[in-house]
Each structure stands twice: as C-alpha cells, then as structure tokens.
Amino acid sequence: MFNRSDLKFQGCTISHLTTLAEISKRTFIEAFAAQNNPNDFKNYIETAFSEKKLKKELLNSDSFFYLVYLAGSLSGYFKLNVNAAQAENRNKNAMELERIYVVQEFQGKRIGSAILNKTIEIATLEKKDFIWLGVWQKNTSAIKFYEDHGFKKTGTHPYFIGNDEQTDWLMEYSMLN
Questions:
Q1: pTM above 0.85, yes or no
Q2: How far is CA 60 from CA 24, 63, 129, in A?
Q3: CATH no., domain 4-174
Q4: Active-site residue, 146 included
Q5: Domain coordinates in residue numbering, the chain
Q6: Which of 77, 146, 159, 173 is catalytic?
Q7: What is the CA radius of gyration of the chain?
C-alpha cells in the first residue's frame, strides 16, 4: 500500500496531452490486449487514444481527466463526464466514471480505491446523486472491485472494439445513502 501523502491527483490539461495519450494506450493494452482480436484492438487503440481524439475530449467542458502519481511516478488516470459528455443519456445529477486505469506495476497498491474515493469526493462537491460506469462483462475482477465499493449493476450496453460488439455492465453508486 502507500502513504496517503505520496498519492497526488493532477487535473489534466492540453499541456498533458502526450502523457495522457501514452498512459491511455499503455493501460488499455495492459488490461485488454490479450482478450481481443489483434487487428480490431490495434485499430481501436489508434483511434480511441489518438492525440486528436483526446484533445477534443480535453477541450469538452463536461469532461475531466486526472493523472494519478504515486511518489512522483505516473501510476494511473481517470476520466469523469457530466451532462452531455456522458456516454448514456443520464440526468443532470449523474456523473460518469468513464475511465479508471492503473499502470500494471502499480496494481494491488489500492490506488484504484483511492481513485474511487476521489471520484466520490468530486461527485459530492458537484452535488451529484449517483456515479455510474460501464465495465466489460468479462472483466470479473473489475466487477468485483466495483461491487466491493458499493456499485450495483443496473443494466447493460454495447461497447465496440473495432467490429467486435462486447457487452458492458452498467453499474451505479448512489450518493444518497
């Protein structure tokens, strides 16, 4: 684990674009490359995490990226969406946790839990009623992680990696408890 003072969250701006693209590609590849068609996966990575696409997302006033550092080393990142930036049509009192990734070498140190706590803190400040996310139905360890942190399955939606249609579980965390 880690000393709380060793963990830092930094809001991401255009000046972080190259770093954001690198960690986005790296963590997605570490998490999912082995379970996907190599051609579909390569094309998805090149499109979804291109600097052009990430720049557009960074400039969206309803999306917020955060870089996570442990003892000065970049260890992960996460992305939050509100209002029209959310992938699903949700009410104004919702916040989407679209991405949460921890670099493989930093996994198992409870950084993911710290990111969830930071997300809850931000949602509280923004007076949101709930946080929601989509998680691949085959990612059973992530599903258990979210369930252990109070998220509940509320539905499903399709997610495409190239031509491969996959199913994401929609999970919610109520801020009203």
A1: yes
A2: 17, 6, 22
A3: 3.40.630.30
A4: yes
A5: 4-174
A6: 146
A7: 16
